[in-house]
């Protein structure tokens, strides 16, 4: 786009007229917008930890170990439940769903992070970035919803044990799984869609290791208010409602357990439900910390929320199979049988 401006006439006429200066500014803005739109962004560059580039190789070691632990433990749990017919029960199906979500989240995020750390391969295609964004948003909320269903399962098992076989059935688990997937996939799908429809003029450097909506959309030259507002409202609605129902379930469980006179039964119930509840609180607290660090990013080093983002995709997947699975007697026996077969 060519723009001819008679600069000599403009600046020789002193003082320059305001209308002419405004016209020049508008023309320059048009030229700038034209240049941007003629070269749309086709890929992004993930910079990860801009202030600690030299430490990335060392940081990759603990991340690799956590990644192997998370994927290995969840894969072992899935195989054990699949092969051991005695574990074909509703609670173990829910545990399988949780492990499957953890594996997908790990595989979506961590391999690319390690690829950046080891080979400095920072580029990610436009479509791959928004696919990663969709999986992260939808699967994290699916995991929260699965925690809620499992808390309801424990509530029925402890508070209404005689009715448990008639309430928690295979059909209940199937309907719950469909609800978990459909609710969260449909409500979080607009987040990457809205972000992908924005115009990305020239900037393509993401100050993060992963394609979060906030990190990507702020590179756009469009207004991102609606996109950010939708993510905020949807995220807090889904995660907040799940957390409230989880707290209510464990409150009722605690109330019933404290009425039991058998000390061993009380200790066992408190130990099991307590570890579950602590893990769920950790999952929710990390999300809250991420929000706070992003809101106060001027006071907090930018590498802190980036690290929290990565750890949130590693630590819960590594702990879930240990807390929910290995501590269960039936799961232990199933894993032992699996190891004997090998």
From TrEMBL:
This is G-protein coupled receptors family 1 profile domain-containing protein. The keyword ATP-binding does not apply. Putative odorant or sperm cell receptor. Keywords: G-protein coupled receptor, Membrane, Olfaction, Receptor, Sensory transduction, Transducer, Transmembrane, Transmembrane helix. One of its GO terms (biological process) is cellular response to lipid. It comes from the Eukaryota. It is a multi-pass membrane protein. PANTHER family: OLFACTORY RECEPTOR 56A5 (PTHR26450:SF424), OLFACTORY RECEPTOR 56B1-RELATED (PTHR26450). It comes from Equus asinus. GO terms for molecular function: G protein-coupled receptor activity; olfactory receptor activity. Residues 73-324 form the G-protein coupled receptors family 1 profile domain. The chain crosses the membrane at residues 59-83, 90-110, 130-152, 172-194, 236-258, 270-292. InterPro entries: GPCR_Rhodpsn, GPCR_Rhodpsn_7TM, Olfact_rcpt, OR51/52/56-like. GO terms for cellular component: plasma membrane. Pfam families: 7tm_4. It is found in: Membrane.
């Amino acid at each position: 786009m060519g723009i001819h401006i008679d600069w000599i006439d403009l600046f020789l006429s002193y003082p320059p007229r305001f209308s002419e200066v405004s016209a020049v500014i508008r023309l320059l803005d048009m030229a700038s917008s034209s240049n941007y739109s003629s070269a749309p962004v086709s890929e992004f560059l993930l910079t990860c930890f801009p202030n600690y580039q030299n430490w990335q190789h060392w940081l990759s070691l603990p991340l690799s170990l956590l990644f192997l632990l998370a994927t290995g433990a969840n894969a072992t749990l899935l195989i054990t439940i699949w092969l051991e017919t005695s574990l074909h029960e509703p609670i173990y199906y829910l545990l399988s769903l949780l492990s499957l979500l953890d594996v997908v989240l790990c595989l979506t995020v961590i391999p690319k992070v390690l690829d950046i750390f080891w080979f400095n391969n920072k580029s990610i295609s436009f479509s791959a970035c928004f696919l990663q964004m969709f999986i992260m948003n939808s699967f994290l909320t699916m995991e929260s919803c699965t925690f809620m269903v499992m808390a309801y399962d424990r509530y029925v098992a402890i508070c209404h044990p005689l009715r448990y076989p008639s309430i928690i059935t295979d059909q209940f688990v199937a309907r719950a799984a469909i609800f978990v997937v459909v609710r969260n996939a449909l409500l979080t799908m607009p987040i990457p869609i809205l972000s992908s429809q924005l115009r990305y003029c020239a900037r393509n450097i993401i100050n993060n290791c992963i394609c979060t909506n906030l990190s990507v959309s702020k590179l756009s030259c469009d207004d991102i208010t609606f996109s950010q507002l939708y993510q905020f409202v949807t995220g807090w609605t889904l995660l907040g409602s799940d957390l409230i129902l989880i707290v209510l379930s464990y409150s009722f469980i605690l109330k019933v357990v404290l009425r039991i006179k058998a000390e061993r039964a009380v200790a066992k119930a408190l130990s099991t439900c307590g570890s579950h509840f602590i893990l769920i609180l950790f999952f929710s607290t990390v999300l809250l910390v991420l929000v706070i660090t992003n809101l106060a990013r001027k006071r907090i080093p930018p590498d802190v929320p980036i690290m929290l983002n990565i750890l949130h995709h590693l630590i819960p997947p590594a702990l879930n199979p240990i807390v929910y699975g290995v501590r269960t007697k039936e799961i232990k026996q199933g894993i032992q049988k699996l190891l004997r077969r090998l």
